[in-house]
Amino acid sequence: MNCCCLRVVALIFVCGLCSSTVAEDITPHVGLIEIYGARKVPVKKIEAAINSGSASSLPSRADAEERIGKISGVLAAQVQAECCEQRKMILYVGIEEKDEPHVDFHPVPAGTTTLSPDLAEAYHKFLDTVAESIRGHNADEDLTNGYSLMADPECREIQQSFLPLVARDLNIVDGVLRQSADPEERSAAAYLIQYGPRGPHTSKIVVDALQWGLLDSDDSVRENANRALHAVMVSARLHPDQQIHIEPTWYIELMNSIVWSDRHNASLALVNLTDRRDPETLQLLRERALASIVEMARWHHLPHALPAFILAGRLAGLDDKAIDGAWVNGDREAVLRKALHPGKHRSTKDNESE
Fold this sequence. Notes:
By secondary structure, this protein is mostly helical. Among the domains are: 20-97, membrane protein fhac (Ubiquitin-like (UB roll)); 104-255, no CATH class. Helices cover 54% and strands 9% of the residues. The chain is built from 16 helices and 5 strands. The protein has helices at residues 3-10, 43-50, 61-69, 117-135, 153-168, 170-179, 183-192, 202-213, 219-238, 249-254, 260-273, 279-297, 302-315, 320-329, 332-340, 348-353, and strands spanning 30-36, 74-85, 88-97, 141-142, 149-150. A 3-stranded mixed β-sheet has the order 1-3-2. A hairpin with a 6-residue loop joins strand 4 (141-142) and strand 5. Helix 2 (43-50) packs antiparallel against helix 3 (61-69). The longest helix has 20 residues, at 219-238. Residues 1-25 and 347-354 have low confidence and may be disordered.
């Protein structure tokens, strides 16, 4: 499998629309614990706080975060369970420490702007329908138009109905995403605005709104903004004449979030945004997120580690074929050392030429 194929496998977002479950065992168990952001606080102290109960049972999120938060040097903690490693849950534990990178999310807005009743009704109908579609294993989607069109006929019909409604209400949807005090309204707006019309002015409204949504204070709003912006990104790559530009800056900042979904989604997006090896983007990535990239690339659950590993390989100056080969051969640490210290790992040929 070449690196392009690996990136395609990694860039499947639709499964994020609902939580995965383990069918045969109603009691969730932890298979892996991945701790990130702990640069000074001893990892063993964090593990002890998590495992104060049964080491294999999934702990209460609130209790685990409270216990971790009491550890000296921890400013904030976030625990998130994801599926699955050998049919057990993966517990991702994000830590924020003093004097380490911090993500500043937007303040919670206080506006009263709401979606129009017909658009809100269509969106809630879509949520009910897509849940049924996922349960029926028919959740494939087409993003080539710059917005999601699902394979399920009923879902697809509702999504197509969004197009004229969002075109009519584009400025309202934009206003809801930026100004509404209700996180459910903002989350709906973040998803719906991907169906806005494409044109020099309207495309900018869509992209700017979604990039704003990437730093919303609410996790679900950020998730939907990311999902929608990914669809826009796919279309922009297929249709360069649209001249849509997506800034990598906000994704790079999210690589330092204590929220697992922020980091995971950002790493997937950055795989696309760095595939042309833009020097300024790679330099900003190195300056702002290198440590986060390396710790994520070391995660034991390989599908979640892969996007960060690709980024590390690009920071190490490797082409996609070399990154692919290192991944398949299990040479992760060699690539990560080169990403951390690129000047110390020049080839023999390079040294002989000096």
